[in-house]
Each structure stands twice: as structure tokens, then as C-alpha cells.
Amino acid sequence: MKHLSDAEFDEFINQDKTVIIDFWADWCAPCRMIAPVFEELSKEFAGKIEFAKLDTAENPETPSKYGIVSIPAFLVFRKGELIGQFFGAVPKSDFKERLREFS
């Protein structure tokens, strides 16, 4: 799984593949709760969706650009276009169902 910085973000989302970015921070308890689920799903959707994480504490520019005020936040892009977003630590089954819409 790729860990992005503000500088790498635009290049990553402009891929031909569908990508999902987890906007998180180390101090965020729900972010830590959902992290293992995000990791598991990255393996289940390998080859269909590219997964990446962006630490909002270390990279404040991108979350600000997309108006992210609550984390964890998950933004889905295809060829640079935002095609979906959802927020919070959701159960794995719900997360998986949402990802199926984009794979």
C-alpha cells in the first residue's frame, strides 16, 4: 500500500485505475480502528482498485483542497475525477459493499 504525500497525490489519482485514499492521522482512534480493514480490503481488491493512505497531520494541503474536516475520510478517484467519498469507521461488510460499486 502506498503512503502518499501532498506532492505525490495528483500523480497518484490520475492513474487509469480506480484509486481510494484513506485520509487519516495517528491521533485519530477511528482511523486506527479502520486501518486493518483497509489493509485487508486492499488485498481483496488487488488489481481492481489501488489503495493509498495520506496522513493529514503531515500533509495538510490535500485534505484542505478537498474540504476534509472529519477523518477517517475515503475518497475514490478514477483518472483524476472524484467519483465517490465516504467517512468514518464502518464495518468491513459495509466498506466492501461500497468498494464493489467502484471495482
Q: Would you kindly provide a written description of the structure presented here, covering whatever features stand out?
A:
Helices cover 37% and strands 29% of the residues. The chain has 103 residues and is α/β, with parallel strands linked by helices. The chain has one domain (2-98): Glutaredoxin. Strands 1-3-2-4-5 form a five-stranded mixed β-sheet, sandwiched between helices. Helix 2 links the parallel strand 2 and strand 3. The protein is globular. The model has no long low-confidence stretch (mean pLDDT 96).
Q: Keywords, please?
A:
single chain; 103 residues; alpha/beta; Glutaredoxin; 4 helices; globular
User: What is the CATH class designation?
Assistant: Alpha Beta
Strand content: 25-35%
First and last CA, distance: 17 Å
User: What's the helical proportion of residues?
Assistant: 25-40%
What is the number of domains? 1
User: Would you list the SSEs in sequence order as H and E?
Assistant: EHEHEHEEH
Tell me the CATH superfamily: Glutaredoxin
Rg over CA atoms: 12 Å
The class by helix and strand makeup works out as alpha/beta
Strand order of the largest sheet: 1-3-2-4-5
Major sheet: size, sense and barrel closure? 5 strands, mixed
Summarize the structure.
The chain has 103 residues and is of the alpha/beta class. Helix content is 37%, strand content 29%.
Explain the layout of strands and helices.
Blueprint: E1 2-4, H1 6-13, E2 18-24, H2 29-44, E3 49-55, H3 61-65, E4 73-78, E5 81-87, H4 92-100
Parallel strand pairs: 1-3, 2-3
Antiparallel strand pairs: 2-4, 4-5
